UniProtKB/TrEMBL annotation:
It comes from the Bacteria. Residues 4-121 form the Gfo/Idh/MocA-like oxidoreductase N-terminal domain. Pfam families: GFO_IDH_MocA, GFO_IDH_MocA_C3. GO terms for molecular function: nucleotide binding; oxidoreductase activity. The lineage of its organism: Bacteria, Pseudomonadati, Candidatus Hydrogenedentota, Candidatus Abyssobacteria. Residues 132-278 form the GFO/IDH/MocA-like oxidoreductase domain. Keywords: Oxidoreductase. This is Gfo/Idh/MocA family oxidoreductase. SUPFAM superfamilies: Glyceraldehyde-3-phosphate dehydrogenase-like, C-terminal domain, NAD(P)-binding Rossmann-fold domains. It comes from Candidatus Abyssobacteria bacterium SURF_17.
Amino acid sequence: MRKIRAGVIGTGFVGPAHIEAVRRSGIGEVIAIAGSSEKVAKAKASELGIDRAYGNYMDLIKDSDVQVVHNCTPNNLHLPINRAAMAAGKHIVSEKPLALDSREARLLLNAAQRSGVVHAVMFNYRHYPLVAHLRAVVQAGELGKIFAIHGSYLQDWLLYESDYNWRVDPALGGPTRAVADIGSHWCDLVQFITGLKITEVTADLQTVLPTRQKSVTTVGSFGRLTTPRQVEVRVTTEDYASMLFRFQHDARGALTISQVSAGRKNRLFFQIDGSAKSAAWDQEQPETLWFGFRDRPNETMVKEPAILKREARQYAHYPGGHGEAWADGVKNFMCDVYRYISQGKKPGRDPAPFATFEDGYRSSVLLDKILTSSRQRRWVKVNVK
Ligand SMILES: NC(=O)c1ccc[n+]([C@@H]2O[C@H](COP(=O)([O-])OP(=O)(O)OC[C@H]3O[C@@H](n4cnc5c(N)ncnc54)[C@H](O)[C@@H]3O)[C@@H](O)[C@H]2O)c1
């Protein structure tokens, strides 16, 4: 069977992760990349063993051999690139957040629904074995009635004033930063696992560092400033956020988001409290899932294919004790997307085992409401129309 041919736009941090995952899926191959210049694209293509390198993303989109476009660029380029790819009839795998705000995200969802192409948003945390296992546990009613969902997503790579990245600039990253960048993952994940949608929010966003030193040369994501040539810029996007949620069926939630919590690298953590038991999971310890009990000893389950729920087994490729983590979740996401494409399925007609632009739009509406709540210091309803 001929592999599905992909082109990847943006080759910074996450672009190469897409490339590796498409290759590991066994169903796709990456035939082209596009970077911010031809020089950058050519250097990356040679490093990663890819034949075609474009300095202009429209040339990749117009390449008639490319069937799937991966958009791994900064958030301000999600609208134009996703739109152009769909207009050219290409399937699209977009990075999150889907767009800078819900107005842009709505335009993309409308275009996706008209286009007939497969559209996916990389909410990759859905695709871990123990996450899928927990979702099946919840669906089987084993937690009982869920009344609380709480946790945090903490990083430290923007702790110092000398830390700068395009995400800090609202023109490139959007009006919320930490919440859109990592809070979007947490909110998508807990709603996916529990099936409970967030219906109302109150949020308090805080810019801990009101100024930062911006390098005059580009510093990639998770990069450190090495050049002494820098300018001071004023920061308006948040480093830290606290939120309270109301979910469907009267469940309540609380979330802390931070990109300035020293020592925490990529700690997405949640706990779900039910009337029968609680469950907790930490992305930095992805091979264990904790269950808490009132009347008997708590349990820590270790990933082991044979004891996973049926729905989760496809995501565990190795026996227990053989670590599978972030890059494997991305691979599982790509397998789901590429299998769906290869089977000729279509969003809207066939249930998608991955987040689509509809989920991306929902996420953008929630981000807008979080921002409104923080600015107006009040509870805001989340109505997704
Ligand atoms: N799903 C996840 O877990 C995850 C993880 C990291 C990043 N992301 C998302 O991926 C996107 C990219 O983030 P990143 O961390 O890789 O950023 P990055 O800065 O490391 O990489 C972005 C790349 O896009 C390139 N680029 C900029 N303008 C371009 C243009 N006009 N044409 C082609 N390439 C261009 C830059 O040169 C850079 O190489 C963001 O939307 C981010 O939110 C998602």
